[in-house]
Each structure stands twice: as structure tokens, then as C-alpha cells.
Amino acid sequence: MTGTRYSVTVDGRAHELRPSGGEVILPAHGSKIHHDPGCAHLTDSARLDRRPDPDGLTWRRLLDAENRADWAFSAGLVNGKNRPLTGVCSCALRPVTPDHADSLPYWPLDQALDAFDAGWLTGALEAAERRAEEIRQEFPIEAWPEMELERYALGIRKIRPELPHPYCHALEYGSGELGSITGGSAMKHLVYWRDGGGWWHDSGYPDATTAWHAVRQGIVDAVTAAREGRVEDIDDIAAVRAANTLIAKTLRVYVPDAIIPVYADSYTRHYLSLLTDEVPPRMRPFARKAYLHRLVRQHPRLGDWPPDLVYRFLAWWAPPREAPQAFAVDLAPDAVAGCLVNGYAAVGSDELGDLHGFADQEEYRKAALRQYPDGADRRGALAAWQLLSMRPGDFVVGHHGGSGVHAVGRVTGDGYYWRPELPGHRHTVAVDWNEPLDVTLDVPVKDWTAAPVTKMRPRVWNKFRLWQLGRDEVEADSGDTHDDTTDVPALQPLDPDLQRLDDALTRRGQAILYGPPGTGKTYQALRYAVQRLGALSDDLPGLAPWAEPDTAEYRATLEALQKAGRLILVSFHPTYGYEDFVEGLRPVKGQAGLALEARAGVFKQVCEAAGDDPEHTYLVIVDEFNRGNVPKILGELITVLEKDKRGLSVRLPLSEEPFAVPRNVLLIGTMNTADRSIRTLDSAVRRRFAFVELLPDPTPLRDFNVDQLDLGIFLEELNTRIRGALDREKQIGHALLLPGGEPVSTAQELAAIVRDEIVPLLQEYAYDDYGLLASFLGEGVVDTAAHRLRPLDDEALVAALYAELQVGTDAHSA
């Protein structure tokens, strides 16, 4: 085998690829090819047969074969009993954690291109173009300026069933050949008819007609911009900002050469990160799509490929890592045979009809409540909606009653499909079933009996999977190291925030970063460590001082600095003391039993190391600085920390040794002022530290939208309300909306941050005064009478925040 290992994604899960080194090993028993002659699954590997693997791609071709057994026979991949090898051993392709995968280089693009066979996609590409032409014929772009809302909007057939399916239905449910935009709610279509009556539209418009005219013009303008080569200008069309996936798929239909048809912005980011290291920061969604298109067109091997083929190659080579989900589906006895033979899982509640006919989950829920008064029938109907959330690669356990397991399989194709031709149980999802199990579990799985479709908790799925496999699957960490001798660049200017910190440290030797939660205090301290300390540590191999946060190079630089002892991270807390930081008595074994011995604390150890190594800078970062009893922790250090007293020694009272703080030791503390103001710090401490304030900054969030919600305006308005009711130290920091340094981009991500991070902070500030909480977020989000948040789904929560915190705050423009 070769020494280099790669990260690959197989079935949505991260794997480590260990290349074969030119040949694959054929086992005497078993069904998998091997790369490592030392694999524990092999015995007497020196005597086993080999097959040449000159380009190292046998593993990929085997996994991609339509019939693996036939392909294995044709390639001579058989075991000692002449049975085909249809899998790949973990010595070649090992499941790993995402963090481990991120530390590896991705499977090389050129190797993937060598292995990729575009021929098997010919039929799919032709079908996609036929479907696009059908949509163009049914909804000609020339007719769009006068198109009626009824020809566009989902839900209209609820009240006018005689109408043909509208455009939004064709795009979301009637064109799987062009790629999927299913999932979430109908809000991504901007205007739709709700169950129970009434149009839903952006609350910034007074009525549905006004909203539709704006949306219609926005779609026309987006297509025009794409035809004129101005894809990035689509980001400025306010009326369609909340419909990125809809607009992207619309471009695939009407301007097929304008973009690579990667609809989700998160996927665009993913593919850009693999194709280049030079992505401009904080690009907006369609600017990113335009940039990806330019990169592909400039590529020597991809440049002449049609965009559809490029996307299908990218999705085959490096699909985003999304851990497959697992679902248990209760298959009725009279439906089992049809399910297993025809490749689907099926459930009932047929009276409601095709799930695609409902605009969103809330509309379906209301219909189910009306249709099914009985509790069990109602639970079954509500559970059927989960079929829409199943994606290719997800696991399905087909069972009955929680104990009789029929088979296990993987979701394939487009997932959910309504089959009106069946006599019953017409809600189906396509599944590639493994061999039937037909076993009865000793103890029924309680979770599976709650409803006909249940999403399996990881604990339950892992337990069942281990039972099925009959053995544990253990992931061992790799012990390999990688020698990176990349030259470290010379010291360069820092960005303004870090330069302020650097200037403060130059003046005083120690500084405190303080501000409200989420302003990036620890983030900035670590960035400073990587950039300044990394650039100054030119004797350490493999550092990347200018690596972007949350990258493998950034994490490797932090780890190398810590391993060398030049970066030390500690956290103060109420029980942290002088003996931890400076020196204290610790029990040691002596001849007469345990004895107490003076031991150096963290900071003393750093100072001793720095004193012996004056050529290099040492940095101590103290997180939560104000949570400890700072005067007690520092003791006599309070004197020798001062810049003009660096190098002077004091005698420590315990060890009676002289102690000095070298000039090459820097100290950064972080303080959350929502917990405790800097005014509460001891005055002697305040005099010796520089204080650098970090306040919420909406600037990096401006013009970045989640649906219609401008993140910058949202943060600014929310903090205006907080300052008015409380104080400036309890504002919400921008870093909460910048996970990984990039603005949050989906309703799911933003809703999770609001529910799990922002709301708990505001509840604490409001002392559970839900009237005050509602004054921050609005009564559309907070139910003041019930003292809780309203049970809104992700898109509805974002829409409510937009209506409360942005409509009327900014000038709504179409």
C-alpha cells in the first residue's frame, strides 16, 4: 500500500481510503477485496492471490458496478472458493468520523475523473433534457410576464381541481430527472395556497396579488440576468431572495448553460471548497454559483462537459457528507409481499391522497386532524409525512408490530411516491431491500410500535445494526503522521481586529478581550494565536499561519503550537486557584507514604520554558477570565506582569524560589460581560491589563439572507430592542450567526441557532418574563399566555422573525 491516505464519501458517510499500491489481495474466504497484506481479516496473506490494480481504482469500479457479482467475475475478483468479491474491506475503505476525514486530503480529482464512466449516464442526461423541454413548452418564458398566479402556485388545485398542475408542482414534484428541491415547506415558492383557505406570501406585501407580481417579475429578472451572463446579480433581486433553490432549478430549465445545477447553497460551498483554495470570503449564493461555473469552465478536463454531467460527476465523486438516517416502517401483512418484490416500503392513511398535494407539513397536519378523529389512525396519518424526509441512502427496517423483521434496505431513487394503482397502502418510498430476514426479535422494539413510520434514534439503530451484523464495528484512529514541510510565510499585517489586540499586547504584555456573548472573543484569541504565534514559530514544521478557521490546516497549526508548549489554553472557574496557576502543594509518594511537594502551576511552567527559549513567543489564553477569583489566582504575579517589570523576579512564598515573567510571554483573557462587567474586576488587575472590547457587528451579515430575512438587519434590530430594554452588555453577538466564519444560510440552521442559543440567552436576561421576551422576538414567536415559544417549524419561525424584526424596519423592495 502507499503511505498517502484520502478522504472519500460513500453512501453519504466519511471514509478513509488506503490506496492499494498497485494490486488488490483476494482472500481465501469472505466477500471483500483487500489492500493491506497485514489486515487482521487475512491469514497467511503471502500465499493469497493478487490482481493488478495499476491505477488504484478497482475499489471504485467494484462499488459502482450495476451487478457487482458479474463485474467481479469478469475482473477475476474471486475468493479461494471461486465466489465473487462484492465488497471492500475496511483495510482499504474504512468508515471514520467527519473530523478525522477533514484531516485527510480528499480523493484526488484526476483519479476520480479516470474512474468515472460518463456512458452510463447517457440515458439520464437525455431524460433530464426532455423533461426540461416539456416544462419550457408548458410554461414558455415569453408568457411569464403575464402568467396568472393559478398557473404558478402550489395548493391551487385544492380549490380548483380542474386546473393542470402548476409550475411549482412541476419543479418540486414533477421533474426528478433535473435534480431535487424537495424538503422543507412550501415557503420556498414565495406564494402558495394554504389548506383551509388563504394565500401565504411574504408579510412585507399587502396582499397576494402584489406579492405575486413582485415574485413573477423577480423570476423573469433572474432568468434575464442569467441569459446575459450576470448570474451574480440575482442576489440583488429582493423579491426572490428566499427562493434560492427554486430560482436555481428555474435556471436549469430556461438557461441550462448558466450554472452548474447545484441547487442548495450548502452544496455549492462544498464543491467550491474541493475545487479551489481561493474562494472569496462571504460570497452570496448566486455569486458562489457563478464562481463555481467559472472554475469548471476553466478546468482542463471538465471545461467542455455539459453542466448536468459536471454536477452528476461531482455528486458521484464527492457528495456532501450527510450521515444516513434510519427509519422503521411497519409493513402491513397484506402489503409485505408486494413491498419486498417490487422494491418499496408502504403505509396506509390513503384517504388524504398524495402527500405532494399538500403545500407543507402544517397543511397536511390540519387535514389529518380533520380526517382521522381516532387517536391511532391519526398518529398513523401524521407519521406518513415522514416518508417525504427520506433520502437516497437512508436505511429502512421493514417490520411488523415492532418484533417481526422482514428485511433491511436503503432508500433509492426519488424516495416518496404515491401509487394510486395499489389496492391500499399507497404511500410508498422506493427501497432496495437486502435479503429477507424473516426473524422475530425476542423483545419488541418499543420505539417502532408508536407509529407506522418512526425515525430511529441512533442508539436504537446502532443496537439493531450490531445485532444484524452479529459483531461490533470498531473504528480505530490512525496513528500515521504526515510530514508537511511547507515554508512558513514572513510576518504579515493582521486584520484590524487582531491588530488592535496585537498593539495592546505590545504595549502591556497582557490584554482582555471582553464583550457580550457571541462576539467571537475566544475565536479571535485563537485566530491571533494561529496568525501571529504561527508566523513567529518558524522552527516548527507544518504550520499554516494564514489558514482559515475551521479548516484542517488551522486545527493542525493550533495542535502543533500546543504540542510545542508555546500555546497554552486554560479556563478560570470558581475553584481554580493560585496553586493551579502559579504553584502549590501536591501529594507525592515518599518512603513514609504520601508527602506534600511544591509543584509548578500552569503559568509558572510556561514562564520557565519561555525563559529557557527567549527566541520564541509563548502565549497563554485564559478563557472565562472573570469567572475565577483573579487577585487570588495571580497573587504576586500582579506585580511582575507589568511590562516594565518583566524580567524582574519575586520570591515565591511556598517554594521560596525566585520567579520572573519573561518578556516573550503574552497573556490573553476573555470575558463575557453578560455574566459580569469589567467594573467588578479588582482595580489592581484592571490597571495591568489592556482591554479590547468586541461588540456585535452586523456588517459581515449584511446582504446575506435566510429566506427573506436579512441577517444583518435582523441582528441590528434585535440588539436595538435589547439595548433599549436591558443594556449594551447583553446584546447578541454576530458570531452566533457565523458558524465556521460564514453566514448561516438555511432556515434549518438559523432556526436551530435561534432556539438553542439565542432564546436561552434572552430567557436568562428576561428572568422568564415572557412579555419581555416577546418584546424582543415578537408575539408571532413567543406565546406569552402559555409561557413558551410557539410550535413553529423552521421556515415558519424564520418568516415570523422576518415579519416582526424586519418588515417595516427596512424598505421592502421588489
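Second entry:
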Amino acid sequence: MRSLPGPPVRQDEPASGLGPTRSPVHASSGTRLGTARPRQEGPTDLRLVPPALAAWATAALVLDAHPAWAFGLVTGCLVIGCLVAVGLPPSARRTRRARVASWPRASAAALLLCVAAAAASAGLHGADLRRGPVPGLAREYATVTAEVELSSDPRLTRPKVRGDHVAPTAVLIDADVLRVQEAGGTAVTTRAPVLVIVDVDAAPPGRVTGGRGRSPWLGLLPSTRLRVSARLAPAMTSGDRVAAVLRVRDQGEPEVVGEPSGPQRLAGRLRSGLREATDGLPADPRALLPGLVVGDTSRITPELEEAFKETDLTHTLAVSGANFTILLALLLGPPGLAQHVERRGLAPRLGISLRGTAVLGGVLSLGFVIVCRPDPSVVRAAACGAVALLALATGRRRSMIPALATAVLLLVLYDPWLARSYGFLLSVVATGALLTLAPRWSAGLRRRGVPPRLAEALGAAAAAQALCAPIVAVLSARVSLVAVPCNLLAEFAIAPATVLGFAALATAPVAMPVAEALAWCAHWPAGWIARIARAGAALPGGGVDWPGSWAGAALLLAATLVVVLVGRRLLGHPWWCAACGLLLALAVVQPPPLTRAVTGWPPPGWRLVMCDVGQGDAMVLAAGEGTGVVVDAGPDPQLVDRCLRSLGISRIPLVVLTHFHADHVAGLPGVLRGRAVGAIETTGFEEPADQAAFVRRLAAARRIPVTRAAAGEQRRTGELSWQVVWPPPSPPPDSPSWTPPGTPPGVLPVRPPAPEGPNDASVAMLVRTAGLRLLLLGDLEPPAQRALARSPAAEALEGVDVLKVAHHGSAYQDPGLIRRAAPRLGLISCGEDNPKGRDFQF
């Protein structure tokens, strides 16, 4: 029963004649847990904040320091800290005034002792990377046989374009070397952290990832022991938390010499059960749900990952404090009621006491860490999530600042490498924002008439974004303008998706049909989150480029402060708020007529745009309002998508891929993103095979037909028309008298040479638009250019207006074709600081 408030009683008057009454503050401070009256808060205690920050900074600096320097710092801080502590008066003689006067000296002593502890821990962890035989063998690039124990889940690298090819796919695993033996030497027992890199592309086609199979290395669990033959190499960059890199060539099944531990086997069954339960879901929920629940991002496509980065929703793809907060909120009930008789949640409904609930919460925390892997990011997420939830559940946000500082201090002392982790920094800053700024901003919004729940959500999202955006800008060199609304819209779906996902995780080993039903229910909120990310990323002005440095972060923080100060004044003027909101919406949506009027881009009557995609080719031919034919897609989906958005292209009747080198086709997902595409036309020479398969997979997933181009083909759409002039149709293998189509009577037929590679098989086009003639040569090299100059289409190539120079302006050109074309303008597409810059001599 809720207690009713009585009449106010003055502190200096007796209540019912029974003597003086304690003040409300003192009375409530003595209230036991479970009563109906909430506790009162005192002033925020910030004494633990300086020691925590000092320990954090010390750990970050000392990890690379020389052991002697670290030992000197530890000794000096201990001596000075002890002298300061000894100088404090005995506690028994202290009055309240004496205690207050001694706080600065006590704080200084605590700070010095925390610095000493952090320096000692960081020094020992840094020394672990330099001791033993592994660092010396790595400097010699020695080939060794090693026994390693895995400390993380295997993860697959994302494809990266290097030049005209895609870097080989590799599996990355964190591990500890337990025994190492050089060829011809004796085995040495040691313990050194290493990064294991397995080149899985060397494996047979049936076992490799990327749609052709699954490498057995990806099924390994943490704590598994392996014996590998590999080459050691030094760590990739200074400051890494590994002593060396262990490069393994995948030549078969990994040699397991020790099975994983029982808890890891259980966690592996739960995680694989969740993946199996989500197999039948649509693509986005199937990829996103395991990431929301246990941080399994193996199914996240680069396109979806980029959308989450653009909208600052990446935190939903990894295990974060929000996951843990949601689980404990389900156990404890709504925020602010955990210590009241009216508390709700599963625990009180089951009759569990507060102490029992605390024990159950601890067990849940342990299970959360085991299932999501006990690596530093998960430990950090559990600690920060527990602090944030405790602040919300008790309604004592101010008193949770010391708890957050304690969590930071203990985690940095336990694992000093967290001091250099951007993920740890973002978690602490976001949690601090929720405990400090968010309550004030929410209260201010409520005072101005905003509904309480909306004010709470808006204040939390805005506070976290304001403090985290400078750090994100350092990492991505970009600032999202849609982060707050996207996070607000996604917030309502995160909790049901997480709860249903964990329910599917728990039931999958015992009742797969039930788990599949729960996963099917969870796919609705998960799909909503993915749609929010894609919609936000598709907005033309969803983000702005920003200097990716700490100076840029400071500038963004100053700009945010100005916006906050101006925003406080504008909140009292609804019309000004509406005007600013409208301007922001126009800047984000960027309607094409308004954008053209303000920026002059795209220019009126444009016919051909060569997109800035770095080292690669991507061109757009105008074919009507909002319509364009795309010739090549460049190496980066984000860059070509940005180019098409700036042109207002939403319909693409045809995508022409001149050949299958990665710098021409790897950006195809960006071309297809949110646009209606009629067909894809390619060359008939399907090499490299992996990139040709990549194109066909994308086309099949979106049900886009794929055709082959051949000389003589002519097409038209609107005022745009073009003719394919290369490659010629493939001659029948046993027809020596074959004549290419279009050869005039009496002209000696020229049998085309077999292409020596993908470049010579490029699709070349003669385009006519608005009275202009454009010749697009792809990456044709001199042999194919000479054959083109003698082909039946040679006469049509004379005197073109614009020539897209073959092969990014390479010096290897056929002078005869250039003289015949005699262009008025030559266009060369190449990237800044290109490694082949010395060849650009056209």
C-alpha cells in the first residue's frame, strides 16, 4: 500500500507532543530498503574522480615506458604518498572541521597511491610483451612450431581493395603462446600474447569463407589449444597489446591439442544455437540479432556496417552496457522502484527478496560475461552497464559518480590496456553523460512542457551524443547530424529485440522450435533498427566531414558547447526553435532544387560526371531527371553512393562494369543502395573470378539481370544513346573464316586477339548525348587499342569530343588510336598519392 503524505511539520516543533522531530533529510536517510519513501541525495562526491583519471592517464603512458622509468615513478609516488598520508592527524582526534581541513592532503595521498598502482600494473603488463623468446624470434621473422591457447573468438577480416585487386581474406584470433620451438631447436615454455593471422584464401574452394564455404578456423572456441607451424613477425604498430604476429597458412584442419573449457563449450553451444535459430530470418535481422545479443557480428555486411557508422548506431552491433542494463531492468523492474515496496520486475513477482535479487543479478552478470566472452570489452560493458543501471534503479544518480570512478579505477588496474581503448573511453564518457548531463537536460525539457518519457529519452540521447561525438570524429573523421533522432527511434526497439534475443539464446539448446519462434518475434524490432540505420545513412546531409584529430575533437567540443548555450536560450522561443529545426531538416534532406540553388551542383544540363572515388573509375551519364547510366562503380561503395546522391540519381536503367578489377566493381553495393536498377552489363571475360562472383551474387540478391556486352550493340534511353565498340563477339573456336559482325563487304576481316587479361577485355563505349560524342575506353591496353583502331567501328571513333583515357592515364597507350580519336578533352580518373603515379604520363 502506498503511504499517504502527512501535513508538513516544522523541524523545530514536536510532532504530537512526542519531542523534536528529525529533519526530513535525516529521517529519510535512515529509511531501510523496501520502504515506501525514497532516499534523499546529498551533494555529489567527486573525491574519487581525480585518482581514477590520474590512474587512467598513467596506465596509458607507462605501457610503452622503459621498466626503469616505470619503477622510478612507482617508487617516487609511493614515497611521497606515504609521507603525505603519515602527515595526516590521527582520526581519533579529528573534529569535523579537522576532517574537512585534511581532505586535500588525503586526496593528494590517494591520488599518488593510485598513480603508483597504475604505473606498477602498466609496467608489469608492458614487460610481459618484451620477455621470453617470442619477441626476439619475431624480429628475425623465424619459422616456428608453437602451441597456442586462444583467448578470443576468430573473426574474419573485411575485404579491402588494394589497387585493382581485393586483399586476401584472413581469420584473426587473439591467443597466448605457451610453447615455442624454432626449426632445429628445443621447445621453450613461455607465455606471450600474439595475434594469429590465418590466410584462409589459400584453402580449397569448398572450405573458404565469402559464400563458398566456412573455414574450420572460424568454429574454434576460446581456451582451445592448437599446435601450429607459422612465421613470427613483429607487432604491426607500436603500442599493440601483442608481443608478435603469428602468420599461419591454412592448409587444412587446425591441429587441436587441448579442448576448450566447459564454460566456453556451453557459451559456444548457446551462440551457435542463436545463429541457428535466426537462419530463417530476413537478411538484416539475421545479421543484426546475434550482434545485439552477444556481439556476434560475423554476418554483418560491410554495407550494413557502414550504415550503422553513418548514424552512430555502431554501439548496437557490439556488446555494450545497454545489453546488461536491459537484462537487469527486466529482473529489477522500472527505474527508481528497486528499493521501494512498490518495486516491480520478475524478481518481486517470484517472491525474491532484495538480497536474493542482488545474488541473482550477480549470477546473471557472470553468465553475461561468459556467454559474451570475458575479454576486456565485455568486462568493461558489464561494469559500466551495472553502474548505469544502479544509478537508474536507485534514483540516486549523483551518488553513482563515485561508483563509476571506482569501476574505472579497478578496471584500469586490472587491465591497463583498457586505458588506450577507444571503446572503453566511449563507454565511460557515455555513462558519465547519462549520470551528469542527462538528468539536468531531461529536467529542463520537462519544465518546458515536454512529456516525461520523451524528455528522459531525448536528454539521454543528446547528452551521450554531445560528449561522444568528438571521440567518434577522431575515429571516423565525420560527424553525424542524424545520430540523435536515429538513436531515439532505435531505442524503443533495442529492449524488446535484446530480451527476445536472449530468450531465444537460452531456449535454443533445449527447444529449437521455441527459439525460432522467439527469434521470429525479435526480428521485427531488429529489422526496425536496421531500417532506421539505412534510412539515416541514405540522407544526403546525414553527416559532414570533420578533421580526424584531437584538435578536431576539441573544435567539435567547443562547437557543441556553443550550440548548447544558444539552444538553452532558444528553448524559450518556440518560433526560433521551429526555424532552426526546419533549417537542420533542410540541411540533412537537401532537396535537389534547393541544393542546386545554393551550391550550383549538379550544374544545369550536365551530361557526364566522373565521380571522385579515389584510385578507380566511376562515371555517370545523364539520362533524364533523377536518372543516369553508371559506367563502373569504383573501389569504395560509400564514395560512389555519395556521388550519386549529390547528383540526385534514384533510377539507373543500366550499370556497365567494363571489367572485373576491384577498382571498377567493388563499389557496386553503393550504386545499388536505395536505387532502382534495371540491369547490369559486363564483359564476357570473367576474371578475376572472385570479383565476377561478387557481382553475380549482388545481382542475384536484388534480382537484377546480368548481360554481356559485345561490339555492335546499340542502346538508347531518353536523349542518351551509346554503342559498344569493344570487346568483339567471341569467335567460334573452330571457325578460321569467321568474320566479325559489321565488317563492310570487301574489307579484310580482322580476327580479334585473345585478351591477355581483364584490362584488354574492357567494355569500350561510344556515347552520344546532346550533340557530344564521348569515347569511354575502360582500362584497354595497347594491344586491344590497336585492334580497336582497325576494327569496323574505327571510323565512328574519329574526332570525338571527350575521351576517357584508358587505364587511369597510364603511359601505356596506342598513339594510333589517340590520333584517330583526336579528342578535344581528355579525362583521367586516378587517386591522390597513387603508388603508380610515375606511370601517369599521358
